[in-house]
Design a protein that fits this description.
It is a single chain. The chain is α+β, with helices and mostly antiparallel strands. It is built from 40 helices and 43 strands. Helix 2 crosses helix 11 and helix 31 packs parallel to helix 34.
Length: about 1500
Amino acid sequence: MRETKQSRSSLLVHNNNYCIYFLCTVHQILSLTGINFLRQSVIGYVELTIVPLRDGIRSIPINSKQCKIYRVCLNDTFECPFQYFDPFLNVCQGDNKEQSLDHFSSRHLVAALQVDPDFCGLGASVSSGKGSRVTGGYPGGELVIGIPPEALHLVSEGRPVRIAVEFSLEQPKGGLHFIVPSGEGSLVQRGAHMFTWGHANSSRLWFPCIDSFAQCCPWQLEFTVDEGMTAVSCGDLIETVYAPDMRRRTFYYRLTTPASAPHIALAVGPFEILVDGEMHEVTHFCLPRLLPLLKTSAAHLHHAFQFYEETLASRFPYSCYKQVFVNHAPVQVTSYATMSILSTDLLHPSSVIDQTYETRSAMAQGVAEQFIGCFISRQSWSDTWLTQGAATYLASLYAKRCFGNNQYRAWIHSELQEVVKYEEEFGGIILDPSQAPAPPPTAANASTNAASTNCVNPASSAAPSGGALGGGNAGIGSNSSGAHPSASMPGSQMAGNLGLTSSAISAALTSGNGLAVGQGLIAPGLASPGATSPFHFPIVSLQTASPRYLDVLRKKAHLVMRMLEHRIGQELLLQVFNKQLSLATAAANAANKPQGSTMLSSAGGKENPGEGSVGSAAAAWSQHMLISTNAFTRAIFTVTGKDMSGFVDQWVRTGGHARFHLSFVFNRKRNTVEVEVRQEGVASEVGVGVPGGSIKGVRKYVGPLLVTLQELDGTFRHTLQIEGTVARADITCHSKSRRNKKKKIPLCTGEEVDMDLSAMDADSPVLWVRVDPDMTLLRWASVEQPDFQWQFQLRHERDVVAQLEAVEALRAHPTPASRLSLTDTIENEKTFYLVRCKAAHCLTQVANAMVSTWAGPPAMLAIFRKLFGSHSCPHIVRQNNFTNLHHYFLQKTIPVAMAGLRNAHGICPPEVVRFLLDLFKYNDNRKNRYSDNYYRAALVQALAATLTPVISVVNPLGSPLTAESLSPDMRLILEEIVRCLNLEKLLPCYRYTVTVACIQALRQMQKFGLLPSNPSLLRSYASYGQYIDVRMAALEALADFTKVEGNQEDFDFLLDMAVNDPEPPLRHKLMRLLIDKYPPFTHTTQGSQKGKVKHPVDTESTATKLWDLMNYKLYYESRLRCDVVDLYHDFYGMKRPLCLSGINVNIPDAAAEQSEELGSPPYNMTGGISSTLGSRKRKASPAKFERESKPMSADASDSPRRKLAFGVVSPQAQPEVLTDDDRLGLVTVEIVDVGDDGVGPNSSKVRVKESNSGVSAVESGIVVKEEPGIRGVEGGDAPAPSASLQSSMPVQVKQEYFSDNSASLPGILSGQPGDAKAPTGFEPGMFKKEGVMLQNPAARANAPSSGNATASVAPGVTPAGKSSSSHKSHAKVSSSKVKKKKKDKKKHRHKHKHRHEHKHSGGGSKEKGLGPGEKAKGGEKSKSKGTGSKGGKTGGSGNKGQAAASESKAGGKEGTTQVKDETGAAGSSGPLQAAEGKGVLKIKETLSSGSTSPSPEHANPPDFSF
């Protein structure tokens, strides 16, 4: 035992690079036996072999979301109780008073850290009998498993324990994605498949695990699928076993190399298999009928393997590699251990040019992440920049080898511009926020700096005092209501000593000092304590960071890794990577030694002679297979002898970039160049946000700066030392002015060229100046020099980045010399194609600025005809020949650039329009080996770019828009666009690129008044069943329409699709469109201008929907939830939305005001776990799994097993009481059944009873508002609630409430301590949102749940295809003593302006409720569309009202397109499959005729005919 404790303590030391872990996973088994595609469910079993690393552990937290847990067993002998705790099911824990991001962000971070297995909390000094000692934190998890007392001896002895968990998963919203195409045939014939997906750390969404990158172990994987299906997973395929009936087979995989749970993946489908011809260890999988595309796309993958192995001087770390191509992949490539899941969109035929660059780059990125990212994993979230930056750096080196140096440098230049743009808009990105940068060395802190520098491991240093977190010795688990359930386990030594309190986190965030963890987790987004965060989200957790922030963080990590390459050299940097790979390989080989079997056998309770080897192997995995910032810095010092801690503090632990502006003057007498480098946007004082012309994200730079001077005698490099905001230097020139001497000028490449020096100063030898030409700094740089020097730089500089900078600078110099320089660049065959394309667009702006003095044909017309025109007839284009790729890209770009030309009247010249139409007419691709789909799409874009709202419509004002109203040119353009769109239905091209361009062109015509602005056609193209690129083009047009002229209904359509669409990538892309490009309104424009008319979308309904989405509805997908947070910030900023009424959402509670703790567990157990739960152990057999997974009957909803535990209230079904006076008494709310006419049993209505204080609820201004919730019943009659919901509830102390999921887990008590306790189990469909649960809002008392309670609907939140109904209704008072007349009720309604949202059985009536500030008319009548409801009662003809409303909308709107749909066939969803339904959409000559939308069941939009 002494040796065992010694090995365990050594493992504690080795495993604390970021935090101290008390559990170590050494092996895991995952078995999925019941994969059902029709029901979209799985039944599984996991077994974790865990080694406890310290004594006194009484509970084990693991991560699990969405899963139904049936049974937890320890060592196949002991039944274990467990608790469920998911703070994301209600982030704000019912505290929705403010609804501001200031209020939400801190609680969002608290929720993320409470279940983060990598976050161990703040070390606390715990007193003991012999003094004080420092303890670490405890990892978090949603599922906390208690260790029975009879098994505690296993923990005290430090022996490995096996924890088996039986679970199932039904219709998951995240983690697993099922694709079951509709149609005839079997699932195999239809191509049904499923795969795992999600943000990082999302494995918990589909199986219980410790969802941490830092917990590596070997894996054994088993998957049983139907015959005809193939299961692809991580590791080597050991065997495939058929079932006795030959209808199912099981795939057995074994991953001997340790891997973490986030790196485990699964894909199941009828895949076609291709073994790589060059490397037999590589296997490719694709869906049926895509094998020819797969052969073409993956033909060059073996070159990437060879390049990486040669560059890193290391073999591929795994024994095999698999690529799986699936539909609906959320990102193009996601890497897992030994496999990658890629999007089918990457597959392409050999005839497509444009997609080749993207596909090869994505595949190379996936292979690079196998080396660093999967095999070498990150220690914690703050070390993500290392794995992402190193993998992207390796992929960029391969891209440099594959596509050339010019393409590589242009890519680096574009990434640098994107990072600079983001940081100046939002703030500096901190790559590693886990540790503050070291302060500058001074006499006061010299000793402190030395101590912190020597202590590389942050967890090994002393913990800071609790005062930094707002007072108190706030440690882990102060036994408060905000502690994790693991801290409240009875008998646990962690209780009272461990568990990070929510108030401590909130206080830290509020105070601006940040979240201090271990040695110091710095303030979110800041490098200096006390400053305010520039971001509206916490950056210290992956679950709370903005998706765009994470994308830009990857790019900045790549740039920083490239900066490191320039500091130490590429060869030495690759040696550092090689050293890490060598150590990781040696540690991974320890997993293949025989002690693994000894370890597993010892877990059953036998002798354990191999414990020391198990501990040492696990310590080697954690030490060498995980990388952190400190470990990487040590490795650099070991290999190179250079201390890069200063570099890390400057660029990794500090955000922001430098901004330089260089100006120079030539001194003729001294023959020197007087250079001045000014740092723009730097704050005048130390700190962030100090006024004085400072720019967000810009910080002061101190260090060397390279300046390059091109002189007459060559290129000379000078290094300037930058110390202040202004740096001046005199640089002596190496050459003198030549006057009239003719001599060739040498360039940086050694080439000598002739230059026309007539335009430059005769005395100056300087041709041009550049700042940081190698892009070795994160900077924005501008040079102030005359236009002729920019022209010299464009013509003669050989660096592609210099040429791109010169083209950008010449936009501000529209002169004949600039025109000539740009023209020569376009014609020069030796110039890189990206420079020529960008010069074409620049020439468009120069020509438009010179329109009054322009002579000759339109710009670039002669160039195009010279390059691509027929020799005998130049105005006729030659047959397409794309073998010259530079000419191909130029042939696509020049027409688009020419379409931007404008004459003196502001319209496109007619000869340009005729030129573009001739390109369509004479386009001939019959003899071309490459596809012209991207070229034809570019021509459609060019036609759209010629459109202008100036003198385009000639009809009188107010007259109907007809085809004759268009000018002849506009009519020809419309005809050509319609022809291309209809041709796509018959002959679809690759990825429907022409259809995408046509949709964008139609939207452009709508914006300029050339077509009726009708979104019905766009919605048909945006419907599910279309190809995703087509859908995104239509949704982008709809987002633009909503921003310009949309209303609440249009925004609700987009928001509903962004949340509920079946395709995960579309949801994220649509949300980013609403955030980045087409926000209907922003807080900077909407809130600052008081007199400005509000946008129709800026309503209370919008604010409520967004708040509910990010508060609890999107608990299953962190990326989409953070997207909604970004949109909420765009709309309302950090403060409370102005559109919300001044009434508080909840009545303040005295107990709640005194307690600031968040996230209390469902209950606090006072006795031992075994004593309270030992008599209620239950087992679940596979037969029981099948039985319980059947749909639950109505009678079973009231079963005692469905009763909620004390303190557990569904946040989705929580009605709220609004009040203007906090002094009012308590009220009781009940649901009363009413019918379609207000008196029947088929509808529900909320009634407010008399308050306890004797004052009428209506008199006091109390209004019951149903909290928005997810619908429990899709249409139909709402079931009646149970009688228990209608009874008044006793006053209880306020309890924080949790999800329905917690109520259905075994081990949740159904009452207070001392009450009769009965176990609660799982029932089928339990994860569906339950009905309305009513409670006394002031007392926070809980009521038993009813499975068929009526669900409330948020204002405007409707099911797909249904309309929401909102009307004004009075709350009836149950007391007979107090009665009001209609006149008094009318006055009350005018005063309080309350609204009620109800879901009726018809589901189709749409009424217009009175918003804030509106006056009611007609006494009890309410405004409605298509219905005749009065007094808050809705008639039974809801569907008729909906039809009438839709007809009045469609028919009453002028200028809509009349369509005729002749087909109902569904469109193709694959990139290359032709659309089967080819109906014809006919546009009549009168464009203003009424329109009828296509039928919803038609997935394929009808065609055009003009």
